[in-house]
């Protein structure tokens, strides 16, 4: 029992520590830690060393980690920063990406796919959460470029999450789907009300007093909301990730400002330190590498899918002709085309579970998403750096 239960957890946590450490190695460019965690998961998984299999506690924690990534994505949304023209451009750009994604998926459907909608949604994602630290380190967040990209990245996360929860449900009626959408809108309105100051001083004082006590009440309230929205979305018959995302929005908006810095740090520590490593390392453990390398045609689909990520999310840069300098547009397109690994895994997981997508195609899309994380931010950052150096 000990070996079956605890040894996989030990190995996952070991890879979760090794990934960030390897990311710090001076190799000329920075590889995102999440990419290394996926690669390390592949190495310890059944495809290579066979030390850990995707079952038992690893599979259970993977589900929680998947929801946790969406919770943190919800926390990162800041509508105040992107309102106005950046938001409208982002909405129009994501709409263009949906049209391009559906067109690309329809072409691929003729040969190897079963559900073009799943592929289209995967192609329209953007890894905003992964890119925010990169833009912060490059001092780009508070620039016009940064505000425009944050808006585009927000739509690249919010749009696919809402769409997959409403469109990929196979077992409930349109009326039920519409009802859940209304509930989701109510949650958003409630979260907005909380963020605008509807927080009783007595409650804030209680949370502040318990911040550093053994009760850790703010953290426990956060975990309660996470679990409650997780279960609520399942009860409505939709993917639990929409509930996790909504919970993250509520917590994120409620903890804005200086008084929310301390609880945010604690929430980051718990989710990124415990839940989320099981998702990324678990993605590598369950990644079907053999199904890709075993077929030449399947191997060719990986670079094709990578090019489609760039086409679908990069093409809307043409809407920004009057807002971005010519030298910035290529970097903007590359950043926008960095696929959200967590969302791609979630979307393909839904497709495989519903038997509308083959495990091979799911692995292809995940592999292309990993490559986009590895290549696009590095190239975009170098181009931005060269532009700044020339203008300086």
Describe the protein's architecture and organization.
By secondary structure, the protein is mainly α. It has one domain (2-391): Na+/H+ antiporter like fold (Up-down Bundle), CATH 1.20.1530. Helix content is 76%, strand content 0%. The chain is built from 18 helices and no strands. Helix 5 runs antiparallel to helix 15 (296-314).
List keywords for this structure.
392 residues, mainly alpha, Na+/H+ antiporter like fold, 18 helices
Which secondary structure elements does this structure contain, and how are they paired or packed?
Layout (H helix, E strand, L loop, with lengths): L1 H22 L9 H12 L11 H21 L2 H4 L2 H25 L6 H8 L4 H10 L6 H24 L6 H22 L5 H9 L7 H19 L4 H15 L6 H26 L2 H5 L2 H19 L11 H11 L4 H13 L5 H33 L1
Helix pairs in contact: 1-2, 1-13, 2-13, 3-12, 3-13, 5-6, 5-8, 5-15, 6-17, 8-16, 9-12, 11-12, 15-18, 16-18, 17-18
């Amino acid at each position: 029992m000990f070996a079956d239960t605890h040894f996989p957890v030990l190995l996952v946590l070991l890879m979760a520590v090794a990934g960030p450490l390897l990311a710090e190695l001076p190799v000329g460019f920075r590889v995102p830690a999440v990419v290394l965690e996926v690669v390390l998961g592949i190495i310890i998984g059944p495809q290579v060393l066979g030390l850990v299999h995707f079952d038992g506690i690893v599979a259970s924690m993977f589900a929680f980690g998947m929801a946790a990534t969406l919770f943190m994505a919800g926390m990162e949304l800041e509508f105040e920063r992107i309102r106005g023209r950046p938001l409208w451009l982002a909405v129009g750009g994501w709409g263009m990406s949906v049209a391009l994604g559906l067109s690309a998926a329809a072409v691929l459907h003729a040969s190897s796919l079963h559900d073009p909608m799943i592929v289209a949604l995967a192609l329209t994602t953007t890894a905003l959460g992964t890119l925010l630290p990169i833009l912060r380190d490059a001092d780009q967040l508070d620039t016009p470029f940064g505000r425009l990209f944050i808006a585009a990245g927000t739509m690249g996360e919010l749009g696919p999450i809402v769409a997959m929860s409403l469109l990929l449900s196979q077992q409930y009626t349109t009326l039920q789907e519409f009802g859940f959408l209304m509930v989701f809108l109510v949650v958003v309105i409630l979260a907005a009300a909380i963020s605008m100051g509807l927080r009783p001083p007595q409650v804030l004082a209680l949370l502040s007093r318990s911040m550093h006590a053994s009760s850790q009440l703010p953290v426990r309230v956060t975990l309660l909301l996470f679990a409650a929205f997780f279960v609520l979305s399942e009860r409505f018959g939709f993917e639990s990730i929409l509930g996790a995302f909504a919970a993250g929005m509520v917590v994120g908006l409620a903890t804005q400002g200086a008084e929310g810095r301390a609880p945010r740090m604690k929430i980051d520590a718990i989710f990124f330190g415990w839940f989320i490593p099981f998702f990324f390392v678990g993605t590598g453990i369950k990644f079907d590498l053999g199904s890709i390398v075993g077929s030449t045609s399947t191997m060719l689909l990986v670079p094709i899918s990578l090019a489609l990520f760039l086409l679908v999310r990069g093409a809307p840069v043409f809407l920004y002709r009057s807002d971005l300098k010519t030298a910035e547009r290529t970097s903007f397109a590359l950043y926008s085309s960095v696929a959200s690994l967590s969302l791609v895994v979630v979307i393909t997981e839904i497709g495989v579970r519903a038997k509308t997508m083959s495990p091979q195609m799911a692995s292809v899309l995940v592999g292309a998403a990993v490559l986009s994380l590895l290549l696009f931010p590095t190239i975009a950052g170098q181009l931005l750096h060269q532009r700044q150096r020339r203008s300086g």
